[in-house]
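Review form for a predicted model. The reviewer records the input and the model, then writes brief findings.
Reviewer: anonymous (R2)
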Amino acid sequence: MTFWILAGLLAILALAIVAWPMLRSTGKARWLPVAVLVLLPVAAFLIYRQVGSFSPAAQMPPQAPSDVAASMPAGAMPPGHPSTDVMNMDLNKLADQLAEKLRSKPDNPEGWALLARTTSN
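Model under review:
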């Protein structure tokens, strides 16, 4: 609660600093900028109080699983995801497989660059 009191006091101080030169000016519309400076934060706070919440985590409804995940059996990977065997392979084994492919087809510059990056670490 102390935070909100200090935040409010700082906001009032900032508004006073911004509004002070406007109040010193002369003319018919000198109160218009001050009214905007005061009413805009008040309107924003009231709208936030109506639409938003101070504790969003407490009021978030639980999310339903996506359609793809709901239609899959437990433990299955979504479409386009590598299989479990590929994910569990050792990086060195994958580099060896790439080296074998490059021995048979050495005219693949992207493959050589990938092999160089893989084995440099």
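Findings: The mean pLDDT is 76.
Further findings: Residues 39 and 118 are 60 Å apart (CA to CA).
Recommendation: see findings above.
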